[in-house]
Amino acid sequence: MSDPDEAAVNNRRKRRLDYDRQFRIKPLMNDIRRACLSNFHPRRNLSIHEWIVPSKAKKGLLAESKSKHTKRDFKMFVLTDSSNGYTMDYVVYSDKTTFPNGYGLAYDAVMSLMRPSYLGSGYHLYLDDFSSPKLFKNLLTLKMGACGTMREARLGFPRSEENALTKKSPRGSLRWIRDGSLLFVKWKDAREVSMGSTIHQVYGGDTIQKGVKNKDDSWTRKSIPVPTPVMAYNKRKGSSLISDQLIQYFSVQQKTMRWYHCLFYHFVDIATTNSFLIHKELRKENGTEPMTKQAFIEKLTAQLCGVPLSEVHPSKTRKSRHTPVTIARVRRDGSEENKRMPCQQCKNSGNEDIRSSQWWCNACQVPLCVGIRDRNCFYQWHK
User: Fold this and answer.
1) How do residues 88-116 score in pLDDT, each as one tens digit?
2) What share of the chain is helix, strand, coil (3-state, %, to 5)?
3) Backbone φ and ψ of 2, nearest 5°
4) Cβ-contact 81, 11 below 8 angstroms
């Protein structure tokens, strides 16, 4: 974390251009980023997605928020390896000064993460809502291919009504047009899908089984053609969400009212998840079975604390039979009523104020005080 004295100086710069919103967390954030980049070299297929870190902090990091998420949540753009979900790089968005280019949030986020100076070239990038013709063409000048879903409202997307898809077009219908190295594809599934790619051909013979509705309202399964960009996108983009799923399991996140605490916990989750993915890669090379995420976190915790693993994960004890139940007395007519008896613990401890209780231990058959503010006789008795 940052130095408290330097953070106080930065706080006095609020509403000035040189004020840094991420100053509190920046040293740790940069250390984790460098560790992510230096400990694993990515394979060819990469993916960038938006990640929202929920927070209940009193004050958030965002200066303004027009999305459905609150100002207290944190927006991150994450670069991952599509083969295993390893987090290569990330950036935390705070305000318009986060990215210096100013060509739009999606464009600037992608270009800030895809830098050939440290990543190299020749990669294939898979995107969803970040896609635009301008972005794909500029990535191609950096010798990086791109593929992803693309909104038709994007500037540069061809709008031709000739031979266009309609609502009555059969499932599996395909339309395409090429602008130099950039391919635009429209495909009819349950709804119309628009894709862009600088990597793939239009159709390579792939098909999938889908349910198709007939004219008599009956359904049959038919084999329909699928464009090559759609098949590649579904394969690569799905695997890139592995890290997000793993972070949710055994997370160190805790409720906090400090926004930088929330980000601190998330950076720890990124570090431990990346370590677990490297562990799986090494075990795969050796031909041995990797540990589960839970076993890995337990062993890591024991090593960091310098204690045996048995102390981190103690053996489960049997459920206690000592539970408080009401004291019931049977009347002559067979009905029951609650009965009060003097507390045995009050007698043993020598209290002058001996309380009468309607509770006793189910196993010990001893009346004990339960739920009294100034004493807990039930706990003291079984201690």
Assistant:
1) 998 888 776 676 666 788 888 888 888 88
2) 30, 20, 45
3) -75, 165
4) no
